[in-house]
Amino acid sequence: MGIDPGSQRTGIGIIDVDAHGRSQLVFHTAVSLLGNETFPLRLKQIFDEVLAVIAEHRPAEVAIERVFMARNADSALKLGQARGAAICAAVQAGLPISEYAAREIKLSVVGGGGAEKRQVQHMVCILLNIAQKLQADAADALAIALTHAHTRVTAQRVGASAAAAQLAVGRSGRKRRASRAGWSQL
After folding, report:
1. Tens digit of pLDDT for each residue in 112-150?
2. What confidence score (pLDDT) does residue 12 get?
3. Is the pLDDT of residue 10 over 90?
4. Closest to 3 measured CA to CA, from 76, 122, 83
5. At a CB cut-off of 8 Å and minimum separation 6, what does 124 contact?
6. How does pLDDT run across 45-72, given as a tens digit for each residue?
7. Dihedral (C-alpha) 116, 118, 124, 126: value to the nearest 10 degrees?
8. Domains and CATH numbers, the chain
9. Active site residues
10. Are the C-beta atoms of 3 and 12 separated by less than 8 Å?
11. What is residue 2's three-state secondary structure?
12. What DSSP designation does 60 have?
């Protein structure tokens, strides 16, 4: 589950990732918070909506965008509070949480850390085989989920390679040298 927190809209996206790292869309929405009379009610709505989506779709993990330093201190504070409400909902549900910077997300999904929002939307649609145009906050949430999936799959592959190398070292008591033909001796 990816969450793009905001004080006016919060994007939520869920993908399913198979053993080969292929991703499939499960759910996405952009929760409008503007109907609330006060900011604390917006935070409550974020908390309640995230918990409801978790209860309905049962994601295994949550990824959320890290706070960036905005030019406007008030905006940064509100964004941090929106993140806090979403994080509290995920913690309440007992889910592990990973955080990613906006540049990491853009780099992972588009291939460049300075990508524009419409480029992110476009690539999310391509990667998840979505025909219709996505709302920007929902696309960002799905981009966060895709970034986490890519990061986790890469870490698993690296971990498996390291475990195989460690196993080879453990059997012989010494590290074997890789042959010119490949790493088959490890």
Report:
1. 888 888 899 999 999 999 999 999 999 999 999 999 998
2. 98
3. yes
4. 83
5. 109, 130, 134, 139, 142, 143, 146
6. 999 999 999 999 999 999 999 877 667 8
7. -120
8. 2-124+132-172 (3.30.420.10)
9. 4, 65, 137
10. yes
11. strand
12. S
